[in-house]
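Figure 3 (text version): structure tokens given as input.
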């Protein structure tokens, strides 16, 4: 066995041991059951699912997801991304997507940690790290990507998880651990995508700002010309670059936000379909029903009846 082969074997064993520790730590902290579990670290959330799930539409805010066990897929328009213990997922801009856990059992549940991303923190980290920011003419990339989990990122994640055992250390050491995790992501093969969206003068950051504005104003009528003026962009440039980052036009993006919110109002708040449609800005119930079915695969009334008839818990 060559020296290189021996070193690779040792590294692989170390990575497997680290993954096993991460599985154990998340499992112990999520014994209460399936779902999302908050932690003492505001940005850190743990997820456990004991069985595969149905496709679940949701609006994903910027986040980093690291799977310890099991497998999940997310779909953005016609693009499908898999993430598992070998790959982490970065959502660098708010995106309406559909997620589904595809590998999980009661004995071997899907276990994942999610770290919410604050673009302002990423921007400060870039400055502190002395990295060269993208220039004004840098291109734009999709605001979602999956990349390989390497040893340095796994070690940083474990350091953060271990801190949960010593709550008295969290105020001082948790911010340092989070910074290291984000630094490792920024230095990864696809880290430039996250970096571009956090730098004020880049084209990508303008699209991130457009996404934020649409998120805040999704109930209001959309005027592309006004939005482009606010961003100091031409309408054609805004349309082209927005689609490169989100796979959608601004108008499609707003429509998806409205439909996702309507679905939440029906499924969680128990609102009738017609009322939810009006709440999110639809004047025509038939148009709402058509667009809802096109996005989610079933008309709103059918989904509402199914959800209300499903057993709880």
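Below: residues designed for each position.
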């Amino acid at each position: 066995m060559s020296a290189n082969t021996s070193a690779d074997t040792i590294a692989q064993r170390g990575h497997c041991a680290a993954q096993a520790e991460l599985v154990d730590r998340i499992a112990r902290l999520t014994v209460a059951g399936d779902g999302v579990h908050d932690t003492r670290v505001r940005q850190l959330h743990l997820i456990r699912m004991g069985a595969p799930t149905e496709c679940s539409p949701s609006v994903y805010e910027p986040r980093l997801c690291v799977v310890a066990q099991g497998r999940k897929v997310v779909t953005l328009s016609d693009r499908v991304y898999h993430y598992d213990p070998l790959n982490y997922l970065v959502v660098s801009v708010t995106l309406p997507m559909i997620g589904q856990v595809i590998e999980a059992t009661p004995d071997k549940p899907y276990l994942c940690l999610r770290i919410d991303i604050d673009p302002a923190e990423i921007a400060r980290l870039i400055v502190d790290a002395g990295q060269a920011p993208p220039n004004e003419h840098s291109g734009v990339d999709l605001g979602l990507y999956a990349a390989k989990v390497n040893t340095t990122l796994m070690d940083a994640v474990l350091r953060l998880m271990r801190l949960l055992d010593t709550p008295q250390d969290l105020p001082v050491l948790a911010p340092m651990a989070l910074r290291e995790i984000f630094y490792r992501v920024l230095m990864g093969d696809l880290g430039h995508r996250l970096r571009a969206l956090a730098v004020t003068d880049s084209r990508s950051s303008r699209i991130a700002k457009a996404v934020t504005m649409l998120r805040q104003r999704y109930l209001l009528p959309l005027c592309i010309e006004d939005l482009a003026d606010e961003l100091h962009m031409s309408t054609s440039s805004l349309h082209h670059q927005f689609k490169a980052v989100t796979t959608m036009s601004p108008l499609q993006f707003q429509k998806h936000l409205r439909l996702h919110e309507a679905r939440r109002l029906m499924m969680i708040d128990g609102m009738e379909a017609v009322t939810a449609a009006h709440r999110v800005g639809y004047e025509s119930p038939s148009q709402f029903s058509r667009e809802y079915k096109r996005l989610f695969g079933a008309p709103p009334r059918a989904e509402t009846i199914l959800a209300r008839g499903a057993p709880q818990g």
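Residues 57 and 98 are 4 Å apart (CA to CA).
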